[in-house]
Write a structure and sequence with these properties.
The complex is a heterodimer of chains A (288) and B (219).
Chain A: H1 6-18, H2 21-55, H3 80-94, H4 100-107, H5 109-114, H6 119-150, H7 163-166, H8 175-180, H9 182-207, H10 214-239, H11 245-248, H12 260-284
Helix pairs in contact in A: 1-6, 2-3, 2-6, 3-6, 3-9, 3-10, 6-9, 6-12, 9-10, 9-12
Chain B: E1 4-13, E2 16-26, E3 30-35, H1 42-50, E4 57-62, E5 65-66, E6 77-80, H2 92-103, H3 108-117, H4 122-125, H5 134-146, E7 152-156, H6 164-180, E8 183-187, H7 191-197, E9 200-205, E10 208-214
Parallel strand pairs in B: 3-8, 3-9, 6-7, 7-8
Antiparallel strand pairs in B: 1-2, 1-4, 4-5, 9-10
Helix pairs in contact in B: 2-3, 3-5
Classes of the chains: A mainly alpha (288), B alpha/beta (219).
Chain lengths: 288, 219
């Protein structure tokens, strides 16, 4: 029995995670933020272009300065859409499915499922589905924003002549790709957002083992990330590297350059903690 | 044929002994009843047999396999514990189909047949679960526990919220499951129903078994 119930369980969990009203609603809200950014940035781009025509730039069109790669939501840091999206990202990631185990345990649905499979398979499928739903709800609006912005602003390879326009610090993570293979750079950021969206969602799953309140389960990961975000004022400035996911999930170095080691360490730490807690406590604990 | 063997089983939760030294053997083709006041340990004992909780002390074996060591859950079990729980946004049929797809042992025909047996016709079984009445939810819970014809059937208060027709159907279902050779375990407050259905009744008090009675076959 142990060998053949994971696949169907995973199919069920993924279907439940994506075909639910919370996933759809959160996706719509995230899309609105992403499109708000696109609207603002496209409008700003055409305004800037028209101003340059009027006032002139000594015959230099400065084409690489106004590229898709510093105008998509992950490359700009000026619009309301950007601020809302990257500030509320940990909360949006949790909303689609992070609460699922808590509800299934509370209602007793968990019992009818685990007795048909195993605790290990149930929690593994739940972890993967929660991760996927959290990742997708962040990933999809970013992709749509990129496509919409690409319809209006050319994908010119950024030039080191205009670093001031990009705010991608030369010591920042993957910066060499930004000036050489910018599309690869953007794809890497999309993957990074998918992974961290998924990890934030699984934080909620792990927290479900310690709290008995649905609101707390949804909000605690958000507050934990906010604590990390604000702790940068006394941690990050010591080393001059970004430690807040809210600041390193986009390519604009708002305060400090991003270190790939810090991103990797935090990602691994989030994964080890969330996966470890879920699988260890999930399998070990009684189902009452 | 499935035999459940319990030997000196204790369960402590938060320092409180909820199951106290229970030993019994439950054989297939028999209906075993658990009787006792609220909090006497009936549901806890069912959870132990289902493998949802593990004993603090003692052993539970299902067909010679130690629960919690050699197997996590009984290999073929259907449960209805306390309140039935399904997904609100899916129909009754879709809920059962989803659960059945985990083991992939039965098809749509068997699910429909079981739904009819519990008194949920085609139309009502296609309604969303959130629109079900308490009685319909209970019927669906019973259907979920028996649809795959498991070796062990655990029914905790199966007649809750049911009308007369529902209660009669439960009696028929339990009888059919017994004849099929399942090991049926029931907890029920209704003493008449338990007396009619159970071959053996265990009386529980504060988690301990205080008495057991065996039904005398009527001539």
């Amino acid at each position: 029995m142990m060998t053949n119930t994971l696949t169907p369980l995973l199919k069920i969990e993924l279907s439940k995670a994506i075909k639910n009203k919370y996933f759809i609603t959160t996706l719509i809200v995230a899309l609105i933020f992403a499109l708000l950014s696109a609207w603002y940035i496209i409008d700003l781009h055409f305004y800037t272009q028209s101003m340059m025509k009027i006032h002139g730039t000594n015959g230099n069109p400065m084409t690489p300065a106004f590229s898709l790669f510093n105008h998509w939501i992950g490359g700009e840091a000026t619009s309301l859409g950007f601020t809302l999206f990257f500030t509320l990202l940990p909360l949006m990631a949790v909303l689609p499915y992070g609460w699922s185990y808590f509800i299934e345990n509370k209602t007793g649905y968990l019992k009818t499922v685990v007795t048909r499979s195993s605790k290990w398979y149930y929690f593994l499928a739940k972890y993967i589905a929660t991760f996927t739903a959290g990742g997708l709800v962040i990933f999809l609006p970013l992709v749509i924003n990129l496509i919409v912005v690409a319809c209006f602003i050319p994908a010119v390879t950024p030039s080191t002549m205009y670093t001031l326009y990009y705010s991608v610090a030369h010591v920042s993570m993957w910066s060499y790709l930004f000036y050489t293979y910018p599309l690869v750079f953007v794809i890497l950021y999309l993957i990074l957002n998918f992974i961290f969206g998924g990890l934030f969602a699984t934080m909620s799953l792990a927290i479900s083992f310690f709290f008995k309140n649905r609101i707390a389960i949804i909000l605690i990961p958000f507050f934990l990330i906010l604590i990390l975000h604000y702790s940068r004022t006394f941690l990050a400035y010591k080393y001059y590297r970004e430690i807040s996911p809210l600041n390193y999930l986009h390519s604009v170095s708002i305060e400090n350059p991003v270190s790939s080691w810090i991103v990797l360490t935090q990602g691994l730490l989030f994964f080890i903690l969330t996966f470890g807690i879920t699988m260890r406590l999930g399998v070990k604990r009684d189902i009452l | 044929m499935t035999t459940i063997y319990m030997d000196g089983v204790y369960k402590k939760l938060k320092g409180l002994t909820v199951i106290n030294n229970i030993s019994m053997t439950l054989t297939s083709g028999q209906v075993t009843g658990f009787r006792g006041v609220n909090g006497s340990g009936k549901t806890m004992l069912m959870r132990l047999i289902a493998g949802l909780i593990l004993p603090t002390k003692g052993t539970i074996k299902i067909d010679e396999k130690v629960l919690g060591k050699e197997i996590t859950f009984p290999e073929s079990i259907g449960i209805l514990l306390e309140n039935p729980a399904f997904l609100d946004s899916y129909s009754g049929f879709d809920n059962l189909k989803m659960l059945a797809s985990i083991r992939n042992k039965i098809g749509d025909d068997q699910i429909n047949h079981t739904l009819e047996a519990v008194g949920l016709d085609h139309e009502s079984s296609r309604k969303k679960y959130k629109k079900y009445s308490l009685g319909m939810k209970q019927r669906l819970g019973i259907a979920g526990s028996i649809m795959e014809q498991p070796d062990i059937v655990i029914l905790d208060e199966p007649t809750n919220s049911l009308d007369t027709d529902g209660v009669e159907r439960v009696k028929q279902i339990v009888q059919q499951e017994k004849e099929r050779g399942a090991n049926v375990i029931i907890a029920c407050h209704d003493t008449d129903i338990l007396d009619q259905l159970a071959d053996k009744i265990y009386y529980l008090e504060n988690g301990a078994m205080v008495q057991s009675t065996r039904r005398v076959p009527q001539a």
